[in-house]
Amino acid sequence: MARGLVKRFDETLAVDGVDITARRGSITGILGPNGAGKTTTLRMLLGIIDPDEGNRSVLGHADPKDVARLIGYLPEERGLYPAMKAIEAIAFMGALRGLPLAEGRRRGRELLEQYGLEHAAERQIRKLSKGMAQIVQLLGTLVHEPQLVVFDEPFSGLDAINQGKLEVLIRSLADRGVTVIFSTHVIAHAERLCESIAIIAGGKVPFAGRVDEARDRIPAQVRLETSDSDGPWRAALPEATRRVGQFWYFPLPETGIEPLLRALIDGEAGIQSLSIERAGLHDAFVAIAGEAAAADMVTTPEREDA
Amino acid sequence: MDAISKQAGRLSLWQAAFVVARRDFLAILFSRAFIFFLLGPLFPIVVGALAGGIGAQVQSEALSADVGIAMPAEDLDAMMQARDELAARIGPAIPPFVELERLEEGEAFDPVAVLEGREGRLAAVVTGTLEEPHLTAPEANIGRWSGTISMIAATATRSEATSYPTVESTTVATSGARENRGRYQTAQSGMVLLFLLIMLLAGMVLSNLVEEKGNKIIEILAAAIPMDAVFMGKLFAMLAISAIGIAVWGAAGATILTLGGRSLSEFANPGVGWPLFFTFGAIYFAMGYLLLGSIFLTIGSMAATVREVQTLNMPVTMAQVLVFFFASLAVTMTGTWIEFAAMAFPLSSPFAMLARAAVDEAIWPHLVALAWQALCVAVFIRVGSTLFRKKVLKSGPQGASTKKRRLFSFASGKNS
Ligand SMILES: Nc1ncnc2c1ncn2[C@@H]1O[C@H](COP(=O)(O)OP(=O)(O)O)[C@@H](O)[C@H]1O
Ligand SMILES: [Mg+2]
Fold it and tell me: Is residue A59 part of a domain?
């Protein structure tokens, strides 16, 4: 959907040749630390700013403006008119995307109900809690039933319960065939939700593809438990093996697990248990984007709240 | 394909502007600020009364009315000479004479037609002979000048006796000078009113986009609709608000006039007539407001905070007052390049043209001026929204996130 996007702000090169593709009806995460260029990339995809170089194709159109009514966008910096009632705010956002006001109010009421917020409909935004206002805005980005939804850091500012609700919402959107793209610096959200991700750091995208592929960039970890603690079979273990008591930890050899198993059995190592765990997205992220970028990422949502 | 993209594409400029305008209009209508807006004119009315001084200047220039003279050549010369002699001794009480025609023996002259033609600045016409001068003028001027004319005629005959010839007189309903004087008054009132109204709105427009920026709503708007539409919507919402204001003030004003037992006929008929004058007044008000408003909106959109807007308020108001004085000056300079410049310069054009509507009958210059002003509004909006897109949308989110970024680069020891 985006090829070689480049954006400069005065002297800073904010985004330097970004490629991102999102399959229709899938959930795609843009993953990167603060200042990586996530927001700038999304703004280019949405046509708020135009790239200095590169091409976009949004829902089959080179100019995002041509499909504006099919797009919903939740900006990173949230905001609504404080004096507006929640229901009016939702309807107004729909109207900006071509939905008649009356229809916007009707659907807005439905959405609020689905979210258990029907009591907030007639209240002014300024009288809602920050989290509630944020959900109202979120519903406003969905009220015109877009086919592509772009969320910039949608989880930030939400408490754990609402983060969970938002995850459910994002999945249900994708189930209905809506393409969802969201940015985050919280790896866990991407890991749980996304089919594919783009890792972005310093304006470049070192990885874009399926989450599985990202994990496969680093080998799976093998945990082996043996009753015997030493023997000639130990020569079959890879060099990078660590030992903790009865347990041996090492990356899955490139030749696979079978030759190793055979050597262990022949050497009578006494295998008690064996598990192979695929790498977590966090480890993959470190391997792909480097320690420096990973240091600014948040692995779990809980840590962000702290 | 085309049909699909039409359905899927952005709202058109006008549709989007309407969505923005509707929200703004309702938001302002139900805000406390609207009450102050309605009460606002009380203050300008006081200022307006004081500013009557400006009007006085316009009038005194346009007022020095002349007396036309049409007599047999000899008598005419004698009258002119006598007038100059007396003027030298008595001063400005003696009106200037304008030679209309040197009459041949038996040639007829119709002074009433000359005066009612409403051309020029003639307040009265003297005909007849030195012995039997005849004064034609509106009633007020006959009383004012018949003695003076008699004295001039007596001086002209060089008669030793202190016998003053009797001045016959004819009363006419109106005269060019009276009409002109009244028209300048109408022009002046129209301009002052226009100026004060626009002034009232200017401050409000200046801070109009700050709310969107402060609330970060601008990003939502920018993603969904053209920036031109945001600017237009905001301008038109304010225009609609002012229309309500004018209706309320107009009704209040009419009530006061009626209660005071006065009517518009006390003002001189404007050149284009009252109904058209009011129409032009409304249109020029809208244009003047849109022209200044689009500039103010742009200036205001560059400001990041309400306080920045307040600092801008002062110079902007001063500039506006200058433009107004320029337009006022132009009214007194009929036919000069200054008048033309005031009509051509977009910001003073509505003022100057409204004044013209009061003084002059021609309609076509207004159509030309309106087309020109509308073009300028379109250009101003386009330039403003482009500047906004370039300078503001691309200069990055302000406030919190910038701080976060700075904090971050500080904490990690990067100096960038
Ligand atoms: N409008 C802007 N003007 C100047 N620099 C900007 C602007 N927006 C972003 N940047 C810079 O571009 C880089 C990428 O920013 P951004 O896209 O906001 O990152 P992210 O969303 O991943 O945190 C940062 O270095 C930031 O300072
Ligand atoms: Mg961002």
Answer: yes
CA-to-CA dists, residue B208 to A134, A186, B237, B383, angstroms: 24, 37, 11, 17
Instruction: Determine what percent of chain A is predicted with pLDDT higher than 90.
Output: 35
Residues A28 and A161 in one domain: yes
Closest ligand 1 atom to residue A7 Cα is: 12
Q: pLDDT tens across B189-215, in order?
A: 777 777 877 877 766 777 777 777 777
Q: Are residues A122 and A267 in the same domain?
A: no
Whether pLDDT at B410 is above 70 = no
* pLDDT > 80? residue B142: no
Phi (first) and psi of residue A77, to 5 degrees: -95, 110
| Together in a domain, A205 and A254 | no
Tell whether A60 is within 8 A of chain B (Cβ): no
Contact A269, A241 (CB under 8 A): no
**Contact state of B224 with A48 under an 8 Å Cβ cutoff:** no
What mean pLDDT comes out for the span B28-42? 79
Evaluate whether residue A135 is within a structural domain. Answer: yes
pLDDT at B181: 62
Q: Does residue A37 sit in helix, strand or coil? A: coil
pLDDT number for residue B396: 45
Same domain (yes/no): A140, A230: no
Copy the structure tokens of residue B12: 């058109």
The preferred substitution site among A5, A10, A12, A16 for testing ligand 1, maximizing ligand atoms within 8 Å of CB, is A12
CB contact under 8 A, B401 and A296: no
- Residue B124 to residues A8, B64, B150, B180, B303, Cα–Cα distance (Å): 76, 12, 14, 14, 59
- Kindly identify which residue of chain A lies nearest to residue B3, measuring between CA atoms: A66
Residue A43 sits in the same domain as residue A168: yes
Going by alpha carbons, the residue nearest to atom 17 of ligand 1 is A37
> Strand ranges (DSSP E) for B306-403?
none
Decide if A24 is inside a domain. Answer: yes
Put simply, the answer to whether B221 touches A95 (Cβ < 8 Å) is no
Chain A contact set for B220 (CB, 8 A):
73, 75, 79, 93, 96
B219–A79 CB contact, under 8 Å: yes
Clarify whether residues A260 and A149 are in a common domain: no
Q: Which chain B residues are Cβ-neighbours of A61 within 8 angstroms?
A: 5
More confident residue, B382 or A208: B382
Residue corresponding to tokens 């033309």: B340
- Total domain count for chain A? 2
Whether B395 has a pLDDT exceeding 60, the answer reads no
Mutate to test the pocket of ligand 1, among A9, A13, A77 (most ligand atoms within 8 A of CB): A9
> Domain check: are A243 and A115 in the same one?
no
What's the average model confidence in pLDDT over A158-169? 91
Please tell me the distance between residue A206's alpha carbon and the centre of ligand 1 in angstroms. 18
For chain B, the structural domain boundaries read 2-58+179-401, 64-174
Question: Of all protein residues, whose CA lies closest to atom 13 belonging to ligand 1?
Answer: A14
The domain that holds A11 is classified in CATH as 3.40.50.300
- Cα–Cα distances (Å) from B268 to A33, B177, B180, B273, in that order, read 73, 11, 8, 10
- Report how far ligand 1's centroid is from the alpha carbon of B395 (Å): 9
More confident residue, B319 or A146: A146
Q: How far apart are CA B392 and CA B298, in angstroms?
A: 11
Q: What letter represents residue B279's amino acid?
A: T
- Establish if A291 belongs to a structural domain: no
A78 secondary structure, DSSP code: -
Residue that the structure tokens 């090829």 belong to: A3
- Say what the pLDDT of residue A78 is: 87
Domain that holds residue A35: 2-215
Average pLDDT over residues B103-125: 75
Of B23, B222, B400, the CB nearest to A92: B23
Nearest CB partner across the interface for A34, out of B219, B397, B408 = B408
Q: Are residues A6 and A21 in the same domain?
A: yes
Cα separation of A211 and A209, whole Å? 6
pLDDT at B50: 56
Mutation site for B-interface testing, chosen from A6, A11, A46, A48 by largest number of B Cβ within 10 Å: A48
**pTM flag (> 0.95):** no
ipTM of the complex: 0.82
